[in-house]
Amino acid sequence: MRIELHMGEWMINMGLVGLYRVFEYGRKNGIIGDEYKDSVTIKPWGIELDTDVLPQLPKAYFLYLLEEYSVARRECERLDDYIEKLKNIEQFKNHLSMIKKIISDTGKKVLKYFPNPKLEDIIEKMKEIKKYEHMSQLLEHIHEFKNVVNEEKINEKLTFNYFKAAILQSFFGQVSFLNVTKNSLDLNGHVEEFYRSYVFPVINDLQLEYVLENSHSVEKIISFLERQSEYQPFKQLKREWKKKKLEEVQEYIKKKINRCLLFNERFAFYNFEEMVFSPIGVAKDNAFNFSWHFDSQQPKPLSSLAKLVLLFAPIGSTIYFKNEGINEQTERRLYAGFVQTDATFAEVLQKNNHFKQLKKKREPFNKIISQLVQSVKKESEYTVDHLFFLEFFSDYSSKKTHLHYYHLPMYLAHYFKQYADRLDRIKPYDYSEQFVQYVLRGADPIHVIHSYLRDCIKNERSTMGPYIAVRERSRILQFKKGVRDMATTDKRVWALFMQGREIREAIMRSSGSEKKVTSIAYRLLNAAKAGNRESFMDTLLRIYMSADRPISSIFLNALHERDLDFATVANAFIAGLLANQYKEEQEEVQA
Length: 591
What we know:
This protein is an alpha+beta fold.
């Protein structure tokens, strides 16, 4: 039976991309035989699926995850990185301690499931390695450790534990093979559990739909239900239909059997709840505002087919670590990202494959946006305008989800095509990421700039990055107004930056005090952050008077905002005031 899986909401699109990736992987690696080569085909609207391939998918699913998240490969690559760094004798002890930690932590996980005297010996001998002269013994122990973790059964167990806890449980509750009681299952056990919980229901439900469409007697329908009596949803149907006429059964189907929330033409015997898709699902008992037809036990009807497709969502997304917050308040979290657009399925797949490749290379967000925008620049403006990114962090145990939508309106698409590479000079990396993500959410990145400048004052950082951030924010505001020529605005921002530098030099000549410059910078930054034009201008007038210099007319912008907004005027000047304060690199900043 061939069925159509149409694109729709982002979580279904994510699942369809994942399903196709698993199918492709299975075909490429001989897990799915040649007789199924045309079982999953790309259509403009989504995927056409031959249901005969469904029993082949569980094994391909787990082998894909085992390769994608191999603990052995990851730990060996980390060790190789530290071995390379050991060549720096001055940092030998620091890197050695990290190598010892990797071997000790991973070794303990292995020993928990597989007693291994050789591994225990390696962990003990690693404690004796303390000097650079022990390099040959160290390399030998690392080699032996790699051989242990690369054993198939060991890597399989560690990797299953990792992707089930870190990846899949960000998407689902403790259902089926994700339940803690299933932790002892091996690969075959996981495949069987997948089939029983996800594939078997789909096959049954689709067969029921076929039987109902092609049967002309209740007896044939009841006979089918009896053959599949172990399937729970059919037990109730059998009881309800046993003494009914065909017309009554057809009426029951119209009025009593719900249709799927995500695949409207399919029967829905399940619910869209947190155990099915944790990031935006709600527990059935708590879904008071989602009762379908006032049935408290049916919040949002879901088909077994949609439930299966959602299971592929983690593979359809791009998984990466991201720092949330800035400076001391940073928290590192595992995020899932996806590119959504109103294009054909082939284009959605291509964009997400590209997104995944760029994230693996650890490209900054501005580069990712720029490259994805460049790939659609020949398309209609409608396609670009309907391109957006979403990412989420979800913790099932604490019932918490952080979901971010990043829309890309046309003015931003034009900006990124022209100026995305300028954002590379906003360093450290975290500020660049925060800046771009504020912009994509439609929020003003001025809060990032304020934190950035405060960090520069406190930790003696270069202020070239904040200046670039101020200038790029100004450019984005101009693009939003429809202005494309940045020459005049850029000159004004540069002039304000240079005013700050000149006043700094005047203060240093008269007092020679870095602390005085820092004190003034804090005062101006507080006024800028509060949006207090009067306080900012009062401090500015005092500075110019003490330096015996006339105040530039450009600062009238701070009061009247004729050419530049107050935030741009204030922060460009502060960046200049702090410039060269800490022997920052000399570079051309007008580009």
